Automatic annotation (TrEMBL):
Pathway(s) annotated for this protein in UniProt: Amino-acid biosynthesis; L-histidine biosynthesis; L-histidine from 5-phospho-alpha-D-ribose 1-diphosphate: step 6/9
Name this polypeptide is given: Imidazoleglycerol-phosphate dehydratase
Keywords assigned: Amino-acid biosynthesis, Cytoplasm, Histidine biosynthesis, Lyase
Originating species: Mammaliicoccus lentus (Staphylococcus lentus)
Keyword Coiled coil: no
Gene3D superfamilies hit by this protein: Imidazole glycerol phosphate dehydratase, domain 1 (3.30.230.40)
Length: 192
């Protein structure tokens, strides 16, 4: 199934297509480091992404990064509502040399992000590391996930952020995977 959303504000013009079919991923956000992280997210989650963004990066990257997270979250929420069976819970650790990152995700319908990461540097190239949390907050809140992201060890800031993106992608992939349970995986009978 493929999902698409266009979102236009005074700050960004975003067009994202998200697919669970193994299609090609093309990402052009105008923020090179984010393109790299989203390509890794796509590969490790098994979710194909086509992203075109025209943002006010002449100001800084904040609006672009946050708004992309919001739209991906909205598309994931649509996809979750269409799924007939999913595991609901997923957790994953990613080691990258000196770095260890963990992500734990619950497709709960209760939006909450716990983000615990102290990056070694404030920037990777021109990318502000504080924007990593902004991206995940936009995604998690709009997808209505409960997610805990922890940077357990670090040293190289690129590795730290990459480990977080990969760990989240893998935890999401596990959460979305089909399981033997028929229907909604909640004792309440509903996830909203």
């Amino acid at each position: 199934m493929t999902y698409r959303k266009k979102r236009t504000t005074k700050e960004t013009n975003i067009d994202i297509e998200l697919s669970f079919e193994n299609t090609e991923t093309n990402i052009n956000t105008g923020v090179g480091f984010l393109d790299h992280m989203l390509t890794l997210f796509s590969f490790h989650s098994g979710i194909s992404l086509n992203i075109e963004v025209d943002g006010d990066t002449y100001v800084d990257d904040h609006h672009t990064v946050e708004d992309i997270g919001i739209v991906i979250g909205q598309l994931l929420l649509e996809a979750i509502k269409d799924k007939q069976s999913f595991a609901r819970y997923g957790s994953f650790y990613i080691p990258m040399d000196e770095t260890l990152a963990r992500a734990v995700t619950d497709i709960s319908g209760r939006p909450y992000l716990s983000f615990n990461a102290e990056f070694s540097r404030e920037k990777v190239g021109t990318f502000d590391t504080e924007l990593v949390e902004e991206f995940f907050r936009g995604l998690v809140i709009n997808a209505r996930l409960t997610t805990h992201i922890d940077l357990l060890r670090g040293g190289n800031t690129h590795h730290e952020i990459e480990g977080i993106f990969k760990a989240f992608a893998r935890s999401l992939k596990i959460s979305l995977s089909a399981n033997d349970y028929e229907g909604i995986p909640s004792s309440k009978g509903v996830i909203e």
